[in-house]
Prior knowledge:
227 residues, alpha+beta, six-stranded mixed beta sheet, five-stranded mixed beta sheet, 6 helices, 33% strand, globular
Amino acid sequence: MPDFVIAPPATPAVPVIGGGFFPIRRIFCVGRNYAAHTREMGGDPNREPPFFFTKPADAIIVGDAVPFPTATNNLHHEMELVVALGSGGRDIPSSATLNTVYGYAAGVDLTRRDLQDEAKSLRRPWDMSKGFDHSAPVGPIAPAARIGHPASGRISLAVNGEQRQNGDLSDMIWPVADIIAYLSTLVELRAGDLIFTGTPDGVGPLSHGDRIAGIIDGVGQLEFTLS
């Protein structure tokens, strides 16, 4: 064992349906992976190579209460299918990528949109708009051994009972297998990695006290209040 000079931090983890916890190594996120959302954000929905950003592993938060972040006047919700990898590799062919998947979950990519817009206008990194504390609420992971590999199904989000986002997993520009294959050409993927796979259109602002409820048919759901 290394002789650490301070106590090593705890490993972030997400509960698994059926028991146990899934330890988080890294979090990758795909930008603009639904055509309608791409248009909503002013982009071109033509199928170009996907792009990625990251969140720190400890951005994951599980539970009913999510702290409202500091330094923003325009916090947005982005409902997403989350892929949890049980193995990995480099240059994985699309035909083999689903073998690396441990399971799936419903998650929300919280975004400080005002900071993101400023970063875009100044051609600066997005880190502080996407990778802040508690920016990745996620529900329990459903093992693929239980649910298979969903390629279609409703993905929706409501705020205070009002539906904001409503799409289908089949609307992804890059499906899960292709996302994993492409990402594995950029980095070596490993067990414990999570991939947020993009959001449908309908993203919008959140306020203190809002109740957020997201669901993905055949995968799971999550609910939390911004405290």
